[in-house]
Every structure is written in C-alpha cells, then in structure tokens.
Write a structure and sequence with these properties.
single chain; alpha/beta; Rossmann fold; two-stranded antiparallel sheet; 11 strands; 19% strand; globular
Length: 303
C-alpha cells in the first residue's frame, strides 16, 4: 500500500483548518409576567409557551422562557441575543423592580434586542419611560396614551422583515395608541397602524381611558401606530406590540406571525421570505392557562 503523499496530507490539514465554523445558535429569552386579569386575558405564561412552541425547530435558534416573572437565575440572561417581556405594566412592571432596568439597559448597550408585548410597553413616566424610549423606541404614557378595545383594520403593511408573510387583517384587541416615541420618531418603523373608530372615545378622560389630544386625533381620522420596530443608534433593535390582551388572538396566523417574525429580527436572524410558519390549534390555545376565576363582566379596557 502506498503511503499518503506529504502534499496530500498537507492539503487535508489546511482544508480542515480553513473550513468555516458553524455559527452558534441565537438565544432568545421570553419573560412572562405573573397571572393577571380574568380568564383568557393577559395569559402571559400560556402566551410565551405558545410562542416558544411555534419557534421550536427554527434552525439556529434556541428559545428559553421564564414563567411567572423575572428569571430567578440571573445567569439565564448571559449570552442572550434578545429578550421579550409579556407582563403587566405601570408600577407593577417586572422590569422596574430591584436593579432590573440597569440589567436591561446593559443588555441593550451590548446589542441585545429588547421587545415588549401588550401591557409590557408601559413603564411609568417617572421610572423607566426614558430607558424604554432608548431601548424599544416607544412607550405608553398615562394621561396621554389610551387602551380601548377596538377592531383594528390593518389595510396595508410596510416592507420590513417583521411583516414577511403577513397579509392585511382585522382583529379586535386592546390596541393601545397615541404612544410616546423617540423625538421625531427617529429609528422607529411603524409595523401595524390603523384608524380607530369613534367607539374608542366613549370612555371619560382618565390615565388610560381618554384625553383631549386623543379625541382630537380620532376626530381627524389619524392612523395610529400600535406596533413598531426600532433601530437604536448603537445598532441594537427594539420592538413594541400593543395587542395580545386576548389570548385567543394568538390563533390568528397574521397576528401571531408579526410577533414570531419580530423575535427573529430582534435576535438578528434572517426572517424567512414567507415569515415564520406555525400552526396553532384550539387545544394549543387551551393549555398552560393560569388558574383564574371566570372573567367577571366589566367595562372593556379597564385596568
């Protein structure tokens, strides 16, 4: 048997060292808030578990979840590429306790994508709002922004990775609007925008329910941004999505695809040309719900 030629061996060794290394998986952490509201609403835990299920099998992506609040093990935040919060807001916002704002701003400074779903877009004006504007590009502000339930008709969508595979759709939810954004909306790309009807002005003025400015906007027929993408000056990314009060809305393919696409985009992954494809059944929507009493009949949108 002939011995391998030295030149052949050399080429094989060189080839082994020059072969491209496989890229490490992107890591995303979905943080769910504690139980809130009545049955079928603010189902934070079931919501993030459903999103995790829909993203299972996505090549190059690992999705972890933290249920019932901020992760108890701080190391779970190490090495992540994006974090998405789906939780209550205001003074109860999980990001406002302890030193968590500092943790989030540090992550954002390292280029980690930051996303907020539904009530999670609302810190307080006194604490968190300035940080959220820098990290996510927008925030709910009491006595300015409002939270009515209405049928949003998304007639057109921008050309953006987050909208890939998404068709125009109409859906009823607690779509917040008249949000605060960065000055001049620099870095902000509206993802979902619709014109509210007069039904959103039937509630009296209040911290979440109404104010003269929003009434004037509705009277003019101004389109309202209810979801957005944000590109930070430092190159990081943010995402806000004000819907998802009703857990059942995750069953809508276009509604769900917006958020699934956004998770990939936040982690700097390529969003497929047709968007993230997933299938959600009635059984999928019925599992992992928080043990809550039956929803009591009350005025929609009351926090």
């Amino acid at each position: 048997m002939k011995k391998p030629h030295l030149l052949t061996i050399g080429l094989l060794v060189l080839s082994a060292f020059s072969a491209p290394l496989a890229a490490a998986d992107k890591r995303v952490l979905l943080i769910a808030g504690t139980p809130s509201h009545g049955a079928g609403a603010h189902e934070h835990n079931a919501g993030v578990l459903l999103l995790q299920k829909c993203l299972a099998g996505t090549p190059g992506l690992k999705v972890d979840v933290s249920l019932n609040g901020w992760p108890k093990d701080g190391s779970s935040l190490n090495g992540i590429d994006a974090v998405v919060m789906y939780c209550d807001g205001g003074v109860k916002h999980l990001a406002l306790a302890e030193n968590r704002l500092a943790v989030l701003t540090s992550l954002a400074a390292r280029g980690v994508g930051i996303g907020c779903v539904h009530y999670a877009v609302e810190p307080t004006k006194e604490k968190g709002q300035a940080d959220f504007l820098r990290m996510v590009g927008g925030a709910f502000e009491t006595h300015w922004s409002v939270n009515p339930h209405w049928d949003a008709n998304f007639k057109s969508l921008p050309d953006h990775p987050i909208t890939r595979g998404v068709k125009p759709f109409t859906i009823r939810d607690e779509w917040y609007f008249n949000m605060r954004f960065t000055e001049g909306r620099r870095g902000v790309t509206p993802i979902l925008a619709a014109v509210p009807d007069a039904s959103v002005t039937t509630r009296p003025d209040g911290p979440h329910s109404g104010n003269p400015e929003m009434r004037a906007q509705v009277a003019r027929g101004d389109a309202q941004i209810v979801s957005w993408a944000f590109e930070r000056p430092d190159g990081g990314r943010g995402f806000g999505f004000t819907g998802a009060h009703h857990h059942s809305n995750w069953g809508n393919d276009d509604f769900r695809r917006i958020v699934l696409n956004a998770i990939l985009w936040l982690a700097r992954m390529e969003v497929p040309a047709e968007g993230v494809k997933s299938n959600v059944t009635a059984n999928d929507l019925a599992v992992n719900l928080d043990p809550k009493p039956a929803a009591k009949k009350k005025a929609e949108g009351k926090k």
